[in-house]
Amino acid sequence: RPEVCGVDAWRRTGKPAGVAGVSSTIWRVLLAVAVGAAVAVAVVPIASRTTAASAAYVALGDSYSSGVGAERYSSSSGACLRSPQSYVHQLGRRVSSFRACGGATTDDVLRRQLKAFPRDTRLVTITAGGNDAGFADVLRTCLYGASADCDRRVGRAEQFVRAALPRRLRRVYEAIRERAPRATVVVAGYPRLFAR
Asked: pTM for the full model?
């Protein structure tokens, strides 16, 4: 099977496979997604108070929230690959509803993850936007394709992140706020997989 995103090599060596041959522009997509998330989160008021550990906590988002790559997955999570080793379970909080799903786009979050929240929801965490921008396709293209193909694919992703992603993220954050008006909403970013 082809190694996508260099996960196997990352486990063995501490860095993704193919880094030496990857165009240095790949980091721009990751940075652009993170910047897009930071810009969009500005429209969501974040509570400054500390939330009580007993209040409900809802975890939303994509593979970075579900814990894809952690190897141990909850049998009930199916294709979403939710792991008890994800950051969601490392926060020391009771997880009331773990809805994150590997591969989820912002539309998936809106359609599948935003059912009714517990009334006492005081914390919501989310990562979203990377799949909308074609994160996996960008990585595959840049790891296994020609440099010119990588540059073109990164350029398309950057354009999407600047032009369309902030609007999509805003819709998600506003929908969360409607369902959990008293919750602290924490938008987690994406790791920088490649150095400049």
From this structure: 0.72
